[in-house]
Sequence to fold (245 residues):
Amino acid sequence: MNNSFSLKGKTILVTGASSGIGKAVAIECSKSGAQLVITGRNEERLTETYHLLTGGNHLMITTDLSGSKGLDVLLTGLPSLNGVVHCAGIIKRLPLKFIKEEKLEELMGINFYVPALLTQQLYKRKLLKEAASIVFISSVASSFASIGNIMYMASKGAINSYMKGIAFELSSSGIRANAIQPGMIKTNLSSALSDEELAIDMDRYPLGRYGKPEEVAYAAIYLLSDATLWMTGSILTIDGGLTLR
Ligand SMILES: NC(=O)c1ccc[n+]([C@@H]2O[C@H](COP(=O)([O-])OP(=O)(O)OC[C@H]3O[C@@H](n4cnc5c(N)ncnc54)[C@H](OP(=O)(O)O)[C@@H]3O)[C@@H](O)[C@H]2O)c1
Fold:
């Protein structure tokens, strides 16, 4: 039986696959039948993800994406793709008066420029197959304020707008772009909060807990699959109800 939610026969690139959400996206996509190209900075943890993938013929490319050289390393080794999930990202909390240009550049660099320029290069180099699906991991922080989170909020707002621009511009070639905006997911990134901050924060979630990386991965599979061939420019919120009120 034809399963529209299957990723069988699809080749998917996942950035940030050495940790957290990207790791779960890679593992779950492989369980759904995809061939993976995984990338991250930390070779040891990326190799760990690689060994957790189901099936064979997966590819692993270790590189730091924060410079053009690192991006070239990735692009040079890539096969053509049915999908990409941009998971690499960082968080830096600084109240307005402490924001400095280099901090802003570092955060916007990995959270915005990397997915923006990687997508552009994939398109220019014709590495995106017909009906390819591009998935950006944004955040509810794009429009939901918290103290000291200005730079991160701006980076995710920028990626949402960029995604919509791409969705519109590439629609004539059948390529789709969508974003997932999670609330707090338990990963290394969320451990930037103190235990006290975490306890207060978790109380705000109507479903009573933080999300799991796999719960973001399932949404990514949906967006990568043929079940969403008519879906582009959308932002899928997965936040346990946080932004309901
Ligand atoms: N966790 C949350 O609560 C949450 C909520 C909403 C949105 N998000 C978003 O989800 C995405 C993944 O976050 P996460 O929680 O999974 O974080 P994580 O566990 O810290 O993983 C971040 C990933 O990004 C990679 N990365 C960071 N800088 C890089 C660079 N310069 N070059 C290449 N790779 C780089 C890391 O690679 P290495 O480890 O190899 O260095 C790692 O694989 C981020 O975009 C984040 O903003 C997270």
Summary: The helical segments are 20-31, 43-52, 68-76, 101-124, 150-169, 195-202, 213-224. The mean pLDDT is 96. Residues 16, 18-22, 40-42, 45, 64-66, 87-90, 110, 137, 139, 182, 184-185, 187-190 surround NAP (CB under 6 Å). DSSP finds seven helices and seven strands in the chain.
